[in-house]
Amino acid sequence: MKEMQMIKIITIIGARPQFIKAATISRAIKDVENVHEIIVHTGQHYDDNMSAIFFEEMDIPKPHYNLGIGGGNHGEQTGEMLIGIEKVILDEKPSLVIVYGDTNSTIAGALASTKLHIPVVHVEAGLRSFNKKMPEEVNRILTDHISDTLFTPTNTAVENLKKEGIASDKIHQVGDVMYDASLFYKEKAESNSKIIEKLDLTGTDFILATVHRAENTDDRKRLCRILSELDELAKKINIVLPLHPRTKQKKEEFKIRTKNITFIDPIGYIDMVMLEKTCKMIITDSGGIQKEAFFHQKPCITLRPETEWIELVESGCNFLWTEELNLMDLYDELVIKKLNLSHNFYGKGNAAKLIIDQIIKTY
Ligand code: UD1
Ligand code: UDP
User: Fold this and answer.
1) Which of 70, 128, 209, 346 has a Cα at 20 to 30 A from 314?
2) pTM over 0.85
3) Span 188-336: which CATH code?
4) How far is the CA of 86 from the centre of ligand 1 (A)?
5) What is the CATH architecture assignment of 7-176+347-362?
6) Which ranges in 147-261 belong to alpha helices (H)?
7) Distance from C-alpha of 180 to C-alpha of 352, rounded to nearest angstrom
8) Segment (H or E) for 135
9) Mutate to test the pocket of ligand 1, among 103, 244, 251 (most ligand atoms within 8 A of CB)
10) Which residue's CA is the nearest one to ligand 1's atom 25?
């Protein structure tokens, strides 16, 4: 009988949303016999509540390598990651490399691998905001065009890739691994999270908000406007805002003061899911949280003029906040609106399994 060949995967992760996405694939890998995973953490996110907590809570295997590359400008950060990842690939000689999403860790991993002729597998391929000022948009486009296998979360993503001339046989529409994660951790959140009690929110209406995008945080005027409109809204309804370190740094640098928003430190995924399940509405500029709002059937205001998750806007579940709109007015309009949350845009919650099955077939 022919011996089954071992597939050696290097997984490159570094930022918070990538730990959540990768957790679903690591779990699927545990169910198959001929796949061995080596996890490389670039170190892009490094605080315990931005990194370690996800590995503990989500049972992600401990990274075999942590490159310790966090902070710095884009060029410096990405360049150092490229050097570090190349060394690991040369030592480990994997069958393929998996990268996730659109961060600097993603493009560094994809570039290091393709130059060494190691196949690149991109999970969450094909998303576009059509705004090249976003660092993530540049990372996505470049990563997609040097990837050998592209796993898309939505039909729109497939269309985007085809329009850019990417061969259909490289594209696999499997659904969104973040939907897998949200299904898997929903009950765990209910039984394990104490966040509602901790924040004294039992029986209380509240909005869950997050802000971290460079285009919202790095411009003083824009960050000031967002936080002051949230602060005004927080007079009417509680707002809980887990504060991303980038936003914390900028809020302090720009000396922006608020009175009514409840800021908390970043939290783990289990507590986050609990807040998402319990809140009345979500206001965010996060890519992942826009979808989680939908998964947990909550209306969402997105603090951006455009989004990659366009199906949520088109179906009326997600509202884009632009400069001419006031958050209070949008909230008033949305809170009484009946949302149509019956669509199923993100697959069946088995994206990770489909990805591993396809990888075994291809490699
Ligand atoms: C990165 C991604 C963004 C993603 C986000 C998820 C890029 C270009 N951006 O943005 O796409 O949505 O992660 O959260 O890759 N910091 C800490 N502690 C940490 C992590 C970061 O203090 O644990 C500080 C860094 O020192 C840096 C700032 O936060 O000054 C920004 O971190 P960085 O990883 O460069 O970008 P993010 O804004 O987190
Ligand atoms: N998240 C979390 N704790 C927080 C904030 C976010 O666990 O304090 C989770 C959130 O539920 C989602 C992911 O992190 O699964 C989104 O990450 P982020 O907003 O940092 O990045 P983006 O998705 O915009 O790239």
Assistant:
1) 209
2) yes
3) 3.40.50.2000
4) 22
5) 3-Layer(aba) Sandwich (3.40)
6) 155-163, 177-192, 195-198, 214-217, 220-233, 245-253
7) 7
8) helix 135-146
9) 103
10) 71
Nearest listed ligand to the Cα of residue 242: 2
Secondary structure (3-state) at 257: coil
212 is known as an active-site residue: yes
**CA-closest residue to ligand 2 atom 17:** 17
Q: What residues does each domain of the chain span? A: 7-176+347-362, 188-336
Per-residue pLDDT of the chain (363 residues; tens, 9 = 90+): 456 789 999 999 999 999 999 999 999 999 999 999 999 999 999 999 999 999 999 999 999 999 999 999 999 999 999 999 999 999 999 999 999 999 999 999 999 999 999 999 999 999 999 999 999 999 999 999 999 999 999 999 999 999 999 999 999 999 999 999 999 999 999 999 999 999 999 999 999 999 999 999 999 999 999 999 999 999 999 999 999 999 999 999 999 999 999 999 999 999 999 999 999 999 999 999 999 999 999 999 999 999 999 999 999 999 999 989 999 999 999 988 888 778 889 999 999 999 999 999 999
Rounded-to-integer distance, Cα 19 and Cα 52, Å: 10
C-alpha 296 – ligand 1 centre gap (Å): 26
